Each structure stands twice: as C-alpha cells, then as structure tokens.
C-alpha cells in the first residue's frame, strides 16, 4: 500500500502539465529578472547621455510606457491587495456585462507585453540587415519607435488576432508569458520592507478568496473568476453588424491571466495564476539586483559567497511550487499558491540577510551610492 502511494506521488509530479507549469514559471522569473538588469543598464546609458535623448522622451506618448520602470511604494504595497480584491469582485459580479471591455483591455495589454518579449528576437533578426537598433522613426502622437520595436509590435498584434479568432490555449499561454516577463522586468520592489508588506498582504488576499469567499458569496470567487470565459470580441462586433455566420463560429476565449496546460488525464489540466509567478518574481528580481549591486560594491570579490540571495530564493520558489502542487493533489481542490510560495521565498531571504548582516541595509532602500540613491528612472505606479 505504501509503495503504491509513493508511486502515485511520483507519477503525479511527472505529469506533463505539472512539469511544464513548474519549469516554465521558473524560466519566466529568471528571464524576467535578467531583462530587468538589462533595463537597469539601458537606464544608466540613457542617464549618461540624457541631453541627447531629451527630444525622444518629449516626442513619445505610447512609447513612453516602455521608457522607464515603475516602483511600488510602501503605501501602494499595503493597499494593492485591497485594490486587487475590488477588481476581483467587479469581475465576479459584472463579468457578463463587462466581458467585452475586459477582453479588449486584455488584448491591448497582451499586445504590448508580448511585443516586449519578442523584442530581442526582432533585434537579432534585423541586425544582419544592417538596421540600427537605436534609430527611431516617428509615428505622430503614438511616439517614436525603433524598427525592431515596430516589428515586434506587429508580430504581437498578429498573434493576438489569431488568439481572438481561435481561442487556442497555446496562444493564451504565450500572451500570459509575455505579461509575466514584462511585469517582472518593469515593476520594481525598492526594499525588503516593501517586499514583505506586499507579499504578506497578497498571501492573506489569496488565502481569503480561495478558502473563505465561498462562505460569503456562495461560490469560490477566485476559482470562478480564473476559469470563466469571455465572449469573443469578433462575435460582439458581428452581433452589432448582424453577421450571424461570424457570430456563431467565434469561440469563447479564456483571458490570459493564467498558465494552463492540459494533463495526460483526459479532462484535467494544470493551472497557475500569473500573480503566483509575477509577485514572487518581483522579489526574486529585487534580490538579483541586490546581488549585482553588492558585487559591484565588494572590495574583495574572491571572498564573496557562491550562494547568492537569488539562488536561495529561487530554490525556495521551486520548493514552494512543488509543495503547492502536492497540496492540490492531496486535497483535490484549488490551493492559494502564495500560501506556500511566500514563506518559502521570503523567509530564507530574511534569514540569510540576518546571518550575512545585510538585513538592515536591505530593509530600507538598499541601492545607495555615496550617500545618494543609485540613479535610475523610477516612475510611481
């Protein structure tokens, strides 16, 4: 009997959908964190030549969204779970009425986010053609874009159009990956204090809406919002134009707010919300930036520990994700993944920082150089 149980857990963890969920979420966090470091380097370069770039900044509206990154303040970290709860309730009560609006907003965000994911690929494709990746062309009030940015935006828009027409889960996952990477790269946690406040609040938010919302709203609010499908925008437009053939052939679409992978068992699938990737990912991005900052400030590089804060938190994330997967199999019910991810990522960092003597510095604005804040472009959310 015990041997059978052991084999059950073994085969459960080797299920293709679960393995893909774990592996891809890890890759998204690692890649998003490295893209964030790339943005830091780009910001440093632009700050050194700010006079030459002034015209581009003033002439951009749409492209200005991608010109800097956003930092979460202490107040925003405290109130973000409340705002997320309000958004969840709006989608729970008014999804049928506002589903076209939700689908349209999601399509626009997904287009911009996936273009950011495709940008390095487009830059590589245009490099042999002799195109200057720094040269920008003006598109009027939309702003100024490089050829690679225009190319990635075009491919992204085409992908979103195909997703709307087909509703295929692979395309939805691709757009969700773009959203994950762009949010991890552009949204910043400035200190360990803000990180702790944000992740603790979101842990409480996740636990409440998964475990206790059914007692108040007679339904699991988190699960219902995550799994409901929106009417296809094509069908909405076709209905207005009395085009019944298009209206009947347009499938419903699942919004890319999650990663979904079909299981080997028919009718089952593995699902992980983007918040369970992005929020711990922001913490891992923060400690990766701190590892790089500490390495730059180190007087004796040979004395540095080979185990960095990023390594520690990444191992914790993997353990937390596996634990959440096992818990969902044990209880045969949806689990608040942050209940497992937050302790396994945050606590090791706090303990490691205390042992190394970095806790005080990491707790309050650690990126200080010669009495001043490390120069970069911060924009409040």
Automatic annotation (TrEMBL):
Membrane topology type: Multi-pass membrane protein
Annotated GO MF terms: aspartic endopeptidase activity, intramembrane cleaving
Gene Ontology CC entries for this record: cytoplasmic side of endoplasmic reticulum membrane; Golgi-associated vesicle membrane; lumenal side of endoplasmic reticulum membrane
InterPro entries on file: Peptidase_A22B_SPP (IPR007369), Preselin/SPP (IPR006639)
Transmembrane segments: 19-37, 77-95, 101-126, 147-164, 170-189, 196-217, 269-288, 309-331, 337-355
GO biological process: membrane protein proteolysis; signal peptide processing
Signal peptide per UniProt: none
Official protein name in the record: Signal peptide peptidase-like 3
Species annotation: Actinia tenebrosa (Australian red waratah sea anemone)
């Amino acid at each position: 009997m015990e041997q059978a149980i052991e084999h059950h857990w073994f085969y459960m963890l080797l299920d293709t959908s679960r393995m893909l969920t774990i592996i891809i979420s890890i890759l998204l966090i690692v890649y998003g964190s490295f893209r964030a470091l790339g943005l830091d380097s780009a910001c440093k370069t632009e700050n050194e030549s700010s006079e030459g770039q002034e015209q581009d900044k003033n002439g951009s509206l749409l492209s200005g969204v991608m010109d800097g990154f956003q930092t979460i303040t202490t107040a925003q970290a405290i109130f973000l779970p409340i705002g997320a709860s309000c958004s969840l309730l709006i989608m729970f009560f008014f999804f049928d009425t506002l589903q076209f609006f939700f689908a349209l907003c999601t399509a626009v965000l997904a287009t911009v986010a996936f273009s950011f994911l495709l940008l390095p690929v487009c830059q590589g494709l245009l490099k042999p053609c002799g195109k200057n990746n720094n040269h920008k062309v003006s598109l009027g009030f939309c702003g100024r874009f490089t050829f690679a940015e225009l190319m990635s935006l075009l491919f992204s828009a085409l992908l979103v159009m195909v997703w709307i027409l087909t509703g295929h889960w692979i395309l939805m996952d691709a757009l969700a990956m773009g959203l994950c990477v762009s949010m991890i790269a552009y949204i910043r946690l400035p200190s360990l204090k803000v990180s702790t406040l944000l992740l603790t609040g979101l842990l409480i938010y996740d636990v409440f809406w998964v475990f206790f919302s059914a007692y108040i709203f007679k339904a699991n609010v988190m699960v219902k919002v995550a799994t409901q499908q929106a009417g296809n925008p094509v069908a909405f437009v076709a209905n207005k134009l009395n085009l019944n053939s298009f209206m009947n052939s347009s499938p419903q679409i699942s919004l890319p707010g999650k990663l979904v992978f079909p299981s080997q068992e028919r009718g089952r699938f593995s699902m992980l919300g983007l918040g369970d990737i992005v929020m711990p990912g922001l913490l891992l991005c923060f400690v990766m930036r701190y590892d790089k900052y500490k390495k730059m400030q180190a007087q004796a590089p040979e004395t540095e520990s080979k185990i960095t804060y990023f390594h520690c938190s990444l191992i914790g994330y993997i353990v937390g994700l596996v634990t959440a997967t096992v818990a969902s199999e044990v209880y045969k019910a949806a689990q608040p993944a942050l209940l497992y991810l937050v302790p396994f990522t945050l606590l090791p960092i706090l303990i490691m920082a205390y042992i190394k003597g970095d806790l005080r510095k990491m707790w309050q604005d650690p990126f200080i150089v010669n009495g001043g804040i490390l120069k970069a472009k911060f924009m409040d959310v």
